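Quick check before the chapter quiz. The format below is the same one you will see on the exam, so make sure you can read both the input and the output lines.
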Amino acid sequence: MAVKIITDSLSDITGDLVGELGINVVPLYVRFGEEVYRDRIEMTTDEFYRRLVQDAALPSTTQPTPHDFLEIYQKLAKETDEILVITLSSKLSGTYQSALQAKNLLEGKCRVEIVDSQTVAMGLGLIVVSTVKAARAGAGLDKLVDFVQRAMARSHLICYFDTLKYLAKGGRIGKAQGFVGSVLSFKPILTIKDGVMSPITRVRSKAAGIDYLSNSAANFPNVEALAVEHCTTPDDAEALVERFSSFFPRERIYRSTISPVVGTYAGPGALAVSVLEAEKA
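Here is the expected output.
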């Protein structure tokens, strides 16, 4: 009986891929005033980004409740006796804690292991997809936990921000605080380091940002998986895919839209590239 894999909606895994691989996704929540929506379920990404730009007030976000996780644990416990949960960084959200609390509420013999990925977006998504494939190949729960922990060191998320306004307002600025004063003249490039947003460099234009993302991905010698995401600029994402196709099979490049919850802090115009390095023999 294969291990069942759960992640959260900030993994940015597309609906098609979720269905194809049988991944279970627990959504976070985004709130506009008194209106609360489950990430990607009750509000489309297009509608979210339209409101993000037009509404005067910044939306807020909320982690899943322990009950949200418990419901899925109980459902999957009827199908398997081993569940692996891989969440976004616990330093960006309380989602990991909700998953842990739900584990303590689960009755029965189903074993649940929870791993804090220390990353987000397709940096997390590529880890999850790779882990699901390992589970399908027959790996048991202990081996999969070890697999995820090794994969975390191989996963790299590089993000271009058109503005840091949303990240700063939302309190997720992390170690990029020093960039805030220069947001008008520069475009920041950030990554995830030790579970929080961390600065890499600054560029003067979107074109320079796209060059940086492209060159960064091309510099990895052995790429197992590659993903490109955008908030509001699909043409820019497609331009990156075109560049990457010179060194990586185009049909294997994952494309996604940055989730509303992440988009609350990334803001319009953001682009992200995630690279999963191949594991050394």
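If your answer matched, good. The domain at 155-277 is CATH 3.30.1180.10 (Hypothetical Protein Tm841; Chain: A;domain 3).
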